[in-house]
């Protein structure tokens, strides 16, 4: 995880969550089997804990309620793991078969739309 490039925060929560989720997806594609191994792990490691904490704190700075920020970050970080694990059972290999990447992108878009409606701070 520490070798994986991580996006810098911006003033756009959606872009930040999207970039973080894609960074995890890229990590999983580059390291087949990591998604399955991570599910049983009881300690995600200091880099993962730090990155989740920093992104959560950043969303709070952007106006998210603390529980909403953590829920949003946890969801977009779990999403690529879920897709990578399930892709082979649907006939797709992440990184090798475009439909797995397309499925991830479609699910990410749906999740971000839901976060916008249910969790994001309202303007005004």
Question: How would you describe this structure to a colleague?
Answer:
The chain is an all-alpha fold. Helices cover 66% and strands 0% of the residues. It is built from 5 helices and no strands. The longest helix is centred in the middle third of the chain and has 21 residues, at 66-86. The protein is globular, with a radius of gyration of 14 Å. It starts with 12 loop residues before the first helix and ends in a 6-residue tail after the last helix.
Helix and strand topology:
Layout: H1 13-30, H2 34-39, H3 46-61, H4 66-86, H5 98-118
Query: What letter string, H or E per element, gives the SSE order?
Result: HHHHH
Q: Which percent bin holds the helix content? A: 55-70%
**General form:** globular
Strand tally is: 0
Main sheet attributes: strand count, strand direction, barrel closure: none
Give the termini separation.
38 Å
Q: Helix/strand-derived class?
A: mainly alpha
How much of the residues is beta strand, in percent?
under 5%
Q: What low-confidence regions span 5 or more consecutive residues with pLDDT below 50?
A: none
Helix tally equals: 5
Average residue-wise pLDDT: 88
């Amino acid at each position: 995880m520490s070798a994986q490039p991580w996006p810098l925060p911006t003033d756009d929560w959606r872009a930040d969550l999207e970039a973080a989720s894609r960074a995890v997806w890229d990590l999983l594609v580059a390291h087949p089997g990591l998604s399955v191994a991570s599910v049983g792990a009881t300690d995600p490691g200091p880099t993962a804990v730090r990155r989740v904490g920093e992104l959560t704190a950043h969303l709070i700075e952007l106006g998210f309620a603390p529980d909403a920020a953590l829920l949003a970050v946890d969801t977009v970080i779990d999403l690529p793991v879920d897709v990578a694990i399930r892709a082979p059972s649907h006939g797709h290999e992440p990184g090798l078969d475009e439909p797995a990447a397309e499925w991830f992108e479609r699910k990410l878009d749906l999740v971000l739309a839901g976060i916008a409606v249910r969790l994001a701070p309202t303007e005004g």
